[in-house]
From TrEMBL:
It is found in: Cytoplasm. GO terms for biological process: regulation of cell shape. The gene is yvcK. Keywords: Cytoplasm. The keyword NADP does not apply. Required for morphogenesis under gluconeogenic growth conditions. Its main location: cytoplasm. GO terms for molecular function: LPPG:FO 2-phospho-L-lactate transferase activity. This is Putative gluconeogenesis factor. The keyword Cytoplasm applies.
Length: 303
């Protein structure tokens, strides 16, 4: 199993949160051949509170991915994932987020903070923030009203007309290099507007994706999102929106559940399968996802 994936030199996954974490966990056996480029524009929860008081990037999605790549859990990893309870100032904060921010303050750049944690837990795969500059997601809603920040965009009742990053930021150079070297690029699963689209809004990343020779795969969610705006989108509309921001028709393969309406995308390679983890509802099973991606390589790259 998974004999085809092992033949690739560089696999790059784009996204954030639990979705990207599952993809990284599924393919972690690829070691240094695997790179995750992680969204850093979250302004909610523990990450948002740290950003409000200390500035910088959002650490939550990076911390989540690091957690899912830890193969040997011990006292140190449990401390890294500890979330404070109670009603005090620390309530709701994840210690991993605070640790990453503290390392960022000691380090020259955020990527170094991530690499220190990778070294601590012996994680071979790379995790790279989409940018090392503070940035927020901004939307124009259906009434041409400016909506600022991911938490506000998540509660929109209908799809926004337009999304952008504020301010304009440059990508992490290492992340851009990994895209340019990729054989396989994975987008998703994850919150469509707030975990997937922000990475595509960085001009240099969009340009690299536009010019890539890699096979590009969109992995759809297993269930409707909590966000009403995102949950109303068909698979065709999601592909259309992503490719509008990239500026090119680049998505070669869609991995979806068997009940998804594929009208409008029939000309792409469609992998339809039951991929849900029976123990973690609405999350991809890491072994079934690995099998589906191996099928993609067999059908799309080696044929």
């Amino acid at each position: 199993m998974n004999i085809y994936l092992k033949n690739l030199n560089r696999v790059v996954a784009l996204g954030g949160g639990h979705g990207l974490g599952r993809v990284m966990s599924s393919l972690s056996y690829l070691g240094s051949k695997l790179t995750g480029i992680v969204v850093t524009s979250d302004n909610g929860g523990s990450s948002g509170r740290i950003r409000q008081s200390e500035g910088g990037i959002a650490w939550g999605d990076l911390r989540n991915c690091l957690n899912q790549l830890i193969t040997k859990h011990n006292a140190i990893s449990n401390i890294f994932n500890y979330r404070f309870k109670g009603t005090g100032d620390l309530s709701g904060h994840n210690l991993g987020n605070l640790l990453l921010k503290a390392l960022d303050n000691f380090s020259i750049r955020p990527l170094e903070a991530v690499n220190i944690i990778r070294a601590l837990f012996k994680i071979k795969s790379f995790l790279i923030p989409m940018t090392e500059k503070a940035v927020d997601l901004v939307a124009i809603d259906k009434n041409d009203v400016l909506v600022y920040g991911e938490t506000a965009i998540d509660v929109l009742q209908s799809p926004p007309k337009y999304l952008k990053l504020y301010p304009d930021v440059s990508p992490t150079i290492e992340g851009l290099k990994s895209i340019n070297e990729a054989d396989l690029i994975l987008i998703g699963p994850g919150s469509f507007y707030t975990s997937l689209i922000p990475i595509l809004l960085i001009k240099e990343i969009a340009l690299s994706l536009k010019n890539t020779t890699a096979v590009v795969v969109f992995i759809d969610n297993l269930s409707n999102e909590i966000s009403l705006a995102a949950s109303s989108l068909t698979i065709f509309e999601k592909v259309l929106i992503m490719e509008k921001y990239i500026g090119e028709k680049i998505i070669d393969v869609l991995i979806v559940t068997p009940n998804v309406n594929i009208k409008g995308v029939e000309n792409r390679l469609i992998i339809k399968d039951f991929l849900e983890d029976v123990n973690i509802p609405y999350n991809h099973d890491i072994f079934l996802l690995k099998k589906a991606l191996d099928k993609v390589i067999k059908l799309k790259i080696l044929n």
